[in-house]
Specification:
170 residues, Arc Repressor Mutant, subunit A, 9% strand, three-stranded antiparallel sheet, mainly alpha
């Protein structure tokens, strides 16, 4: 683990309290998410939410913004910003339907499909893959521990999306 300019490993903290070790491990997880988000932003000029939106659009012909937001697990207001940025990049287009001009569908472009084909694997994909190698008992143990941690932090009522992102511009 990196603290300042010195690298520490988890085992070097064994003499500290269990509480301190929990905080250090949480910080490592938060830092991993931050670093992954920064890498996506700087190297690929994208965010996890944008990649997830493109994936969803690639799996269907078209979707309304509200349906896309629900499918990805984001609020409609957040999805507006995501779609705006994707549209600016030429990766999606908004298209009004002929039957009801009030309905606007979001459609992935060929450039969007190409971009998606060359997009990096998301941190949450790696997490999902690795969680898939655990037994159900191990997964439930992790889930129970995280639920307890959320409760300890009084965070169980905080609205959060299932997108691992550092919370920067989506």
């Amino acid at each position: 683990m990196l603290l300042g300019m010195y690298v520490f490993s988890y085992t070097e903290f064994m003499s500290t309290t269990t509480e301190t070790n929990i905080i250090l491990l949480l910080r490592q997880i938060i830092r991993a998410i931050e670093l992954d988000s920064k890498k996506l932003s700087s190297q690929y000029h994208t965010t996890p939410a944008q990649i997830l939106a493109l994936r969803e659009l690639a799996s269907v012909e078209s979707q309304t913004l509200a349906h896309l937001a629900k499918s990805v697990g984001l609020s409609s207001s957040t999805m507006v910003g995501v779609v705006d940025r994707l549209e600016k990049k030429g990766l999606v287009v908004r298209h009004r339907t002929n039957t009801d001009r009030r309905t606007v569908n979001i459609i992935i472009t060929n450039d969007g499909k190409d971009y998606l084909d060359n997009s990096p694997k998301l941190l949450q994909d790696k997490l999902t893959d690795n969680l898939g190698t655990l037994t159900e008992k191990e997964k439930k143990s992790i889930l129970m521990s995280l639920e307890k941690m959320s409760s300890i932090l009084n965070a169980e009522h905080i609205d959060a999306s299932p997108v691992l992102d550092s919370g920067g511009i989506i």
